[in-house]
Amino acid sequence: MITISVVDDDQMLIDGLAAWLAGVPGVRLAATGATVAALLGAEAETGEADVVILDLLLADGSDPLDNVRELVRAGRRVLVVSVVPSGDMARKVVRAGACGYLTKDHDLAALIARVGEVVGEGVAYSPELALGWLSDRCADRPTLSPQERAVLLAYASGMTLAAAARSAGVQPGTAKNYLERVKDKYRKAGRPAYTKLELAVRAREDGLLP
Questions:
Q1: What class, spelled out in words, does domain 146-205 have in CATH?
Q2: Alpha-carbon gap, residue 62 to 56, rounded angstroms
């Protein structure tokens, strides 16, 4: 059973989602709230849901990225939904900790499919944003060489430096040099990463790791 909570001030949407989910096996609406604070308060009674669906723009005027960060700090997995098909905003909310970004022009079946991807620890986003997401080369996303990328992915996925070197077909000293180059590129891009955990976060933010 997958449980979902929703932060949205559109009561008609929430009522429609609740009615539709009543006929969907394996998925249950656990709690709702018009604000992040209201949702967290409701979940204190109902229990934490597997995924929180968060509307990008709420009537309380709260900052979307702050909302994502607050939910993530509370240990929630967040899927942002919006009427705005913005690749730039999608990147920002994922870097703030969200697990995906879906535009509201999709039907409820598509929404639940994306929820399933988030539960599976993937990053979910609208198909129309995929090309821009994957091909993005904005200033804060460094361009890595194939060797740098191979070592980064192996190391950030949990391997030791020696194992990452073997996976990439290079010596440990060479792998270490590649990682130092990767760290330097992220530092120059304004997104420093000094530890293995931080490198893994950067790789996920840039769509290199699931």
A1: mainly alpha
A2: 9
Residue 125, H or E segment: strand 124-125
Q: How far is CA 63 from CA 2, 55, 56, 67, in A?
A: 28, 11, 9, 6
- The continuous run of DSSP H or E covering 135 comes out as helix 127-135
Q: How far are the Cα atoms of 15, 29, 99, 110, 194 from residue 126, in angstroms, in the given order?
A: 23, 22, 12, 9, 31
How many beta carbons lie within 10 A of that of residue 110, not counting itself?
Answer: 15
Q: For strand 78-82 and strand 27-33, is the pairing parallel, antiparallel, or unpaired?
A: unpaired
* Global pTM value: 0.64
β-bridge mates for residue 124, sequence order: 100
What is the arrangement of strands in the sheet containing 100-103, beginning at the earlier edge strand? Answer: 27-33, 2-7, 51-55, 78-82, 100-103, 124-125
Residue pair 114/134 in contact by the 8 Å Cβ criterion: no
Instruction: Assign 61 a pLDDT band (cuts: 50, 70, 90).
Output: very high
The hierarchical CATH code for the domain 2-135 is 3.40.50.2300
Query: Strand 100-103 relative to strand 2-7: parallel, antiparallel, unpaired?
Result: unpaired
CA–CA gap between residue 92 and residue 145 (Å, rounded): 24
Report yes or no: 31 and 7 within 8 Å, Cβ to Cβ. Answer: no
Structure tokens at 35: 């604000």
Rounded to an integer, the average pLDDT of 135-156 is: 77
> Where do the domains of the chain lie?
2-135, 146-205
